[in-house]
Design a protein that fits this description.
Layout: H1 5-11, H2 17-32, E1 38-40, E2 43-46, H3 51-67, E3 75-78, H4 95-110, H5 121-124, E4 132-135, H6 138-146, E5 151-154, H7 157-166, E6 168-170, E7 184-188, H8 195-209, E8 214-217, H9 224-237, E9 244-245, E10 254-258, H10 260-269, E11 279-282, H11 289-299, E12 309-314, H12 316-321, H13 323-331, E13 335-338, E14 354-357, H14 360-369, E15 373-376, H15 379-386
Parallel strand pairs: 2-3, 2-4, 4-5, 7-8, 7-10, 8-9, 11-12, 11-14, 12-13, 14-15
Antiparallel strand pairs: 1-6
Helix pairs in contact: 2-7, 3-4, 6-9, 8-9, 8-10, 9-14, 11-13
Bound molecules: FE3-S4 cluster.
FE3-S4 cluster binds next to α14.
Length: 389
């Protein structure tokens, strides 16, 4: 892999241990995937922020980077953490975890990372189309490549941090035009009715395709929120980092059909046995302003049912813009939380054993990561479950 003179000096440790470590991670990755050089990136988005998923050893690594003077060289944002520090009245996570979480956030701050704490960094700062990025957080990667037409591989936490410290990433994978082309045509026969059904298609196709790239034909009203659910689900059950839709369908590639039975069978995987959930969770991936407005419109004038919690997750950036809608949700008894999500927190410690969501990604992960029984339903069904008429 070709390195410039300056990159060689970093590699040889002349700029200090933090940058040497970072460039060695990037070069190693580049060699594995046959990159020819490092390319500049517009931004990095780093996962591995919640103490629940990061743990002590990785926190120690972050501390070493900070102690060695590591500061990011490009715009860098971070994924959600394990609680909303401004709403400990709602998310009362144990003190021992709070301290560790705040320590992690401080370490990122010392590195010059923006404390966005969101998995939808594109609502905070939309990347330019054709810009090269180094984003971790698989749902954001798929959205960036497929909807925003930016270019990013599916980074892990360490490689996204390394790219942020160097301001570059190795040019392999979907940074190369030929690697972005669809190789399976997915003909979606049912007229998808809501965001949940887009998520079901994502789970089904992700598990079939793994790393192959789908072109979706027949998507009914593919608006931004539904595409976000499709991509997040696709990246949960599979490893795809890009999908295509809308343009002229590619010819001469393998074809797969999605019919009603596929959707029904996938939904059956997420059917719940409980009558009433402890928590209804909306906001995986984090809600947009439009989605918060939609929720507020649906629950205006209603009241939360007894013994059910209704939490909406978003970024602080979006919440600030959504204030009138947030007020409606909170008045009805719901709560709008920032910088966190239900997959990266300790649900059982919060007294939650049963969960209902409109997110296929959460329904896919929560039973394993959080040991809670999880059901999947559309946004309007979730709202009916949480609020009196
Ligand atoms: Fe975001 Fe958490 Fe879902 S990080 S994509 S809300 S699992």
């Amino acid at each position: 892999m070709y390195l410039t003179k300056e990159e060689e000096r970093i590699y040889d440790g002349e700029m200090g241990w933090a940058y040497e470590k970072a460039i060695k991670i990037l070069v190693k990755l580049g060699e594995i995937f046959e990159a020819t050089r490092l390319i500049p990136i517009e931004s990095a988005h780093i996962s591995g922020v919640s103490y629940k998923t990061l743990g002590d050893a990785a926190t120690e690594f972050l501390k070493e980077i900070v102690n060695a003077g590591g500061v990011v060289k490009t715009r860098a944002t971070i994924n959600p953490s394990s609680f909303d520090p401004q709403r400990v009245d709602v998310m009362n996570v144990p003190n021992k975890y709070r301290t560790k979480q705040l320590h992690i956030l401080n370490l990122y701050k010392e590195m010059g990372v923006e404390p966005t704490l969101t998995c939808t960094p594109y609502y905070v700062n939309k990347p330019a189309s054709n810009s090269h990025l180094a984003w971790a957080e698989s749902s954001a990667v798929v959205y960036a490549n497929s909807v925003l037409k930016a270019w990013t591989n599916r980074e892990g936490g360490p490689s996204a941090l390394a790219a942020a410290l160097i301001g570059k990433t190795p040019n392999y994978g979907v940074h190369i035009p030929e690697n972005r082309k669809a190789n399976v045509l997915v003909d979606v026969k049912p007229k998808l009715q809501n965001e949940m059904e887009f998520g079901l298609v994502g789970i089904h196709i992700g598990s079939l395709l793994k790393k192959r790239i789908p072109y979706f034909k027949g998507l009914n009203r593919p608006e931004e929120g539904s595409l976000k659910q499709l991509g997040a689900a696709l990246a949960s059950s599979g490893m795809t980092s890009i999908f295509h839709f809308g343009e002229l369908p590619p010819r001469g590639i393998e074809k797969i059909t999605v019919d009603e039975t596929c959707l029904k069978r996938t939904l059956e995987r997420f059917s719940a046995t409980f009558e009433k959930p402890d928590l209804v969770f909306i906001g995986c991936p984090h809600c947009s302003l439009r989605e918060i407005k939609e929720i507020a419109t649906m629950i205006r004038g209603r009241k939360i049912k007894k013994d059910v919690r209704f939490w909406v997750c978003t970024s602080r950036h979006v919440k600030e813009q959504a204030e009138p809608y947030v007020n409606i949700i909170e008045k009805a008894g719901g709560r709008v939380l920032c910088g966190t999500c239900m997959v990266v927190t300790w649900l059982r410690e919060l007294g939650i054993e049963t969960l209902m969501t409109n997110s296929s990604k959460t329904a896919y992960y929560a039973p394993v990561f959080n040991r809670v029984e999880t059901g999947l339903a559309s946004l309007s069904e979730c709202i009916d479950m949480a609020f009196n008429p």
